[in-house]
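To whoever is on call:

I kicked off a structure prediction for a single chain this morning and the downstream step that reads the tokens threw a length-mismatch warning. I double-checked the sequence; it's 163 residues and nothing unusual in it as far as I can see. Pasting both halves so you can look.
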Amino acid sequence: MIRIGILSDTHGRLLPKVLNFLSSVDEIWHAGDIGSLEILDELRKIKPLRAVYGNIDGTQVRRECSEELVFTAEDLKVFMTHIGGYPGRYHPKSKKTIEQEKPGLFVCGHSHILKVIFDQKYNMLHINPGAAGIYGIHKSITAVRLIIEGKEMRDLEVLDIPG
């Protein structure tokens, strides 16, 4: 069993409430638009981190992070990227990876809109954790926690801080 904290679109700013929400997890996943190396360092200080870069991330962050990650958490295959789309409207590059890798969980960011949708076509859960930073069009700051046990995902929780 592993507890995961998922966030995206910090844009160089992490609020104490977000860090507190992540304090009980075993691992943090950041789905891009990190904003600075300082954010990566801050997250790495509290928990192991997996992160992908986003469209606003500069050269330094891109040297530290990949554009896409495909990995296994417990027995669950995970695909994470920043610009991914959502069920029925995936970005072409993400759709290709989904079809090749067949993940059970797809994590992306970019839209600043929290979405958790089960995609029946690809038999996977799609999570966009929204935006955990203060910059952007979003009306609230959001992040997600869940438990992965084997191939199963459960106990999904949402942090929602009105903006």
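Update from on-call: the warning came from a stale cache, not from the record. Cleared it. Sanity check on the structure: Residues 115 and 124 are 14 Å apart (CA to CA).
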